[in-house]
Amino acid sequence: MRESLERRSFLLTLALVSVAFAWVLIPFWAAIFWACVVTVIFSPLQQRLKNKFGDKPNRAALVTLLIALVIVVIPVLGISYSFVQEGVSFYQRLDEGKINPGKLFDEIQTAFPVINDLLAQFDIKASDVRDKISSTAVSGSKFLAEEALSIGQNTFSFLISLALMIYLTFFLLRDGHRLINLMVKALPLGDERERKLFTKFAEVTRATVKGNLVVAIVQGALGGIIFALLGIPGALLWGVVMAFLSLIPAVGASLVWLPVSIYLYATGSWIAATILVAYGAIVIGLADNVLRPILVGRDTKLPDYLVLFSTLGGLSLFGITGFVLGPLVAALFLVFWDIFMTEFNADP
Question: What pLDDT score was predicted for residue 267?
Fold first, then answer.
């Protein structure tokens, strides 16, 4: 009886200590998560370098980390900085009256009289819609400007998180396989099941991040190029916005180019509008319809509709990190149920 009491007390204490440790790490969970993501993505490269360098794991991990910084971290920081700068500039033009969202709505309303009939059917006043568009545009751009100011004020905190992520990534690249073996040994789920779960985690993370980032970069670049060629102001800003929105499968980038094309039609720029619609539907849309299933759906083995809903749910709950966490949770959900049906619910 005493042995049973000691065992239960130990397990309870173990659970409490583990929860306390996780609670201590909460302020750094984003840095830890992205360090794990970068490690998973670049671990195949690290393994090849390790085989090339021989018994020099530190050198292989360091070279892999430098490559990750050059390929991923530095470009993302540069694009984010440009996005913030363009966003602040857009807010200033809006605040100074150089951009008038209400006037833009009036022009669209004049060009498409059917809008008045549609609003009348739902007993909606055009003036209310105009005011709502104006207030939303001001609020959105003001929020972006405030976020840019907040980023500037919290630069030290951001740099600390970035440094922690880079620091942890190095050790995960060097000792990741040992940590996985320790976790397999410690977790009471069964070694085979645990390795299956870790494998699925790596597959989904690698496919989701690489696939979504490739699609985002391609769609953002294509959108920014056509906006620049058509002379649409803020091509860089809208290109980056399309890149971020492309994280939402199926509808992402069209949330930008479609309204802009409607405005171009409303202002009489029929040729530019037609070019933008055709380019958006065929070229930009092709990147989403072809690349995403190949890079994301195939490797994660998730249905397209599950990728869509899990991505949207992840983004709404966890922010930008959710585009990885959402599909990851969905994939682990399917793996757990597959194990359950195979091992616990099989016909005798």
Answer: 74
Long-range contacts at 82-88 (CB < 8 A, ≥ 24 apart): 82/236, 82/240, 83/237, 83/240, 83/241, 83/244, 84/144, 84/147, 84/148, 84/151, 85/148, 86/234, 86/236, 86/237, 86/240, 87/141, 87/144, 87/145, 87/148, 87/237, 88/144, 88/145, 88/148
Q: Do residues 276 and 261 make contact, with C-beta atoms less than 8 angstroms apart? A: yes
DSSP three-state, residue 348: coil
What pLDDT, on the 0 to 100 scale, is given for residue 231?
A: 83
Distance separating alpha carbons of residues 163 and 157, to the nearest angstrom: 10
CA 141 – CA 132 distance, rounded (Å): 14
Report how far Cα 54 is from the mean position of its chain's Cα atoms. Answer: 36
pLDDT at 346: 56
Whether 198 and 190 have beta carbons less than 8 Å apart is answered as no
To which H or E segment does residue 1 belong?
Answer: none
Residues of the chain with pLDDT under 70: 1-3, 80, 83-84, 86-88, 90-156, 249-251, 292-301, 304, 345-348
CA distance 267 to 109: 10
- Angle made by CA atoms 83, 87, 93, in degrees to the nearest 5: 145
Tell me the CA distances in angstroms from 42 to 36, 60, 239, one per residue in order.
10, 11, 27
- Tokens standing for residue 33: 């998560």
- Cα separation values, 243 from 205, 210, 249, Å: 19, 14, 12
DSSP states along 273-306: HHHHHHIIIIIIHHIIIIIHIIIIIHHHT--HHH
The reported pLDDT for the residue numbered 332 is 81
Contact 330, 310 (CB under 8 A): yes
109 neighbors 160 (Cβ within 8 angstroms): no
Q: Convert the pLDDT of each residue in 19-34 to its tens digit.
A: 898 898 888 888 888 8
What's the longest Cα–Cα distance across the chain?
87
